[in-house]
Amino acid sequence: MSKLKIQPIKQPDKIINYWKKEKFVVACIVIFGLLCNTTVILGPIYQGKLIDSIVKGYTLSSVIIIAVTYVGLIGTIQFLRYFKRFYIRRFANSTSATMRLMIYNNIMHKSISELNNENTGNLMTRAISDVDLCVEGMRKFTTEVFDTGVLMVSYLISMIVYDVKITILSILFIPIAMLFAKKLKSVIYKYSSAFREKSSEVAQITYDAIENSMLYRVTGMESQNREKYNKHLEDLQNKAIKANILENSMQPIYHVIAMLGIIMVIYLGGKKVINGGWSLGQFSTYIAMFTAMAVKASKAAKLFNSVQKSQVSWKRIKPYLTEYESKDDTVKINKKDTVLSVENLSFSYEEGKENIIENITFEGKKGEIIGVTGSIASGKSTLALSLLGLYPYEGSIKIDGKELKDYSEYEGSQVISYLGHKPQLFSDTIYNNIALGEKQDIKSVLKDVCFDIDLKAMSKGKDTLVGNSGIKLSGGQQARIALARALLNKNKIIILDDPFSAVDMKTEEKIIENLRSNYKESLIILVSHRLSIFSKINKIILLNSDKTVEYGTHNELMKKSNVYKTIFNLQCTEGRGNDGK
Ligand SMILES: Nc1ncnc2c1ncn2[C@@H]1O[C@H](COP(=O)(O)OP(=O)(O)OP(=O)(O)O)[C@@H](O)[C@H]1O
Predict the structure, then answer these.
(1) Helix or strand or coil: residue 419?
(2) For 190-230, what is each residue's pLDDT tens digit?
(3) pLDDT over threshold 90, residue 101
(4) Which of 60, 119, 189, 241 has the smallest set of CB atoms within 10 Å of its CB?
């Protein structure tokens, strides 16, 4: 069997397109489904023939031929059914993989502001369990179109051939079961929606518990949180019961309604046998066909309810099924001089909200280190983030004369590298955390961030696993691995947001020295609270809490800025005493 290829789909928010995409598989389902469900009718017919052959005293050889044909037929039907089921399963697997790929693509193309507003638990529930539930509904629907739809038609035609009047009178109850099932739609929809929403909420709480388990334990909040968690779980269970009970408990009722017609079959069919219109075998065949059809009818009614339930999941994932976009990874970068020119830059995280930083203007070029400092919450990290171009900004940020907005996202990633507040390490090796899947020599960058000594003490060297979020490393080690990642490609602009907060001052000074001598082709923007190294860098941007900005070299700011002078003097006496190892 050929391997499943997962490919994007056009108009992914139209459910029919998932069947259209799998044309070959759907054609196989149709062929095997039709063959299986039309030949299945021969089972009861040959069963009747076998009974008649025995009752009527056929020769042994004739009885054996009928018996062998009967067994052969049953085998063939099962064989066809196997293939039909195989292709339906394949359709389901491929559909869920395609939906997940489309959701992944949607997440990768959402704006950063939209992503900031996403709730992780909710997103995970939609991308995983809602996709499963939706595809399960689609699989059941596809299966039942044949197992129920085609089969019911096959039985119906055969029953009409046997007797029109008995057939009409006996199947009168089947539409009642269907109508009853249809009526339950809004109730099932309501309960299923409530259950799915609660699932998202519990997923988010679970995610939060994993992230903060240590905090809950050290602050003694564990039992209090467990109680709250239990309450959520109880609520989830109640909602799950409500969501499933109608679908499952109604099946026997649908079955009883559909089977009411058996009274007609036995009464009218029995009379027909007495009058000689039917043989005993024919009567038995008819009963077998009617019973099978009534069972199928009750399943069809239940199917309505299953589909109604999976519609809830479809509705939840539909907004994430947007057209596939591939990132433009062509790169047109000026390899020569690097010039960053920022003019009247203002920025707010959400449109219409107050600016966090305002009217910032500065220039920088390759070989320079520009320091950004200021009071708490003055917008230092915000300035660093805005220079990535992932959020909309006001004013102008030009790199080599070209507006940052006009760089594609991929180009941006090749021009600028960024180290955020958190090290953001993956649960992988040191090497993979730095090289990010590329084959690269990381020796010199490890030396630049003074990690070469740490590495010698690790028996597995760069293949050491760092654990979840780098938990197996010290804070300073995590910070330097993340710094090495940002430095590795020597991008034209390197933005480092507080890279030394977990690093001692001696190491910080050594790293700054390395940056100065080994990154002469890059412009480095360094956000820091600690000013000890600021005397060694080219320019400084000081952000004040009232959104005013002061610019200058260390010496200039020491003269003209009281804020800068005060912080520097405080740190250079107290700071050195505290951690200037
Ligand atoms: N993603 C965000 N969405 C909305 N507001 C934000 C976001 N991130 C930060 N802010 C707000 O922006 C302001 C500046 O935050 P920022 O992190 O840039 O300051 P900072 O100077 O780096 O702070 P610190 O010195 O504490 O690291 C704060 O008032 C903060 O609440």
Answers:
(1) strand
(2) 999 999 999 999 999 998 888 888 888 888 888 888 999 99
(3) yes
(4) 60
- Helix/strand/coil (H, E, C) string of 283-300? HHHHHHHHHHHHHHHHHH
Structure letter (DSSP) for residue 389: T
Residue 154 pLDDT greater than 90, yes or no: no
Strands of 539-543's sheet in order across: 416-419, 493-497, 523-527, 369-374, 539-543, 549-552
Q: Would you say the CB of residue 391 lies under 6 angstroms from ligand 1?
A: no
CA of 352 to the centre of ligand 1 (A): 17
Pairing between β-strand 339-347 and β-strand 416-419 as defined by DSSP bridges = unpaired
Numbered ranges of CATH 3.40.50.300 in the chain:
339-424+491-579
Report the separation in Å between the CA atom of 435 and the middle of ligand 1, taken as the mean of its atom positions: 29
The response to whether residue 86 sits with its C-beta less than 6 Å from ligand 1 reads no
**Confidence at 529, pLDDT banded by 50, 70, 90:** confident
Identify which of 347, 380, 391, 563 to mutate to test ligand 1's pocket (most ligand atoms within 8 A of the CB): 380
More confident residue, 577 or 566: 566
Cα 529 to middle of ligand 1, angstroms: 14
Q: Please say if the pLDDT value at position 1 is more than 60.
A: no
- The CATH homologous superfamily for domain 339-424+491-579 is P-loop containing nucleotide triphosphate hydrolases (3.40.50.300)
Distance 383 CA to ligand 1 centre (A): 9
**Burial readout 96-135 (b: 16 or more C-beta within 10 A, e: otherwise):** bbbbbbbbebbeebeeeeeeeeeeebbbbbbbebbbbbbb
Question: What's the whole-number mean pLDDT along residues 94-119?
Answer: 90
pLDDT of residue 580: 38
Helix (H, G, I), strand (E, B) or coil at 279: coil
- Cα–ligand 1 centroid distance for 188 (angstroms): 44
Pick the atom of ligand 1 nearest to 543's CA. Answer: 21
Question: Tell me, what DSSP letter sits at residue 535?
Answer: G
pLDDT tens, residue by residue, 46-79: 888 988 899 888 899 999 999 999 999 999 999 9
Whether 352 shows a pLDDT value over 80: the answer reads no
Closest CA to ligand 1's atom 9: 382
CA of 516 to the centre of ligand 1 (A): 29
For ligand 1, is residue 115 a contact (CB within 6 Å)? no
Average pLDDT over residues 556-576: 82
Ligand 1 centroid to Cα of residue 476, in Å, is 23
Ligand 1 geometric centre to CA of 473 (Å): 27
Atom 2 in ligand 1: residue holding the nearest Cα: 349
Ligand 1 atom closest to Cα of 379?
18
What is the CATH superfamily name and number for domain 16-207+240-320? ABC transporter type 1, transmembrane domain (1.20.1560.10)
ipTM metric: 0.96
Cβ of residue 139 lying under 6 Å from some atom of ligand 1: no
Q: What is the DSSP string of 210-269?
A: HHTHHHHHHTT-HHHHHHHHHHHHHHHHHHHHHHHHHHHHHHHHHHHHHHTTHHHHHHHH
157's torsion region: left (phi>0), alpha (psi -120 to 50) or beta? alpha
Does residue 354 have its Cβ closer than 6 Å to ligand 1?
no
What is the residue with the minimal CA distance to atom 30 of ligand 1? 377
> Could you tell me which of 128, 135, 133 has the C-alpha nearest to residue 100?
128
Distance between CA atoms of residues 328 and 71, nearest Å: 61
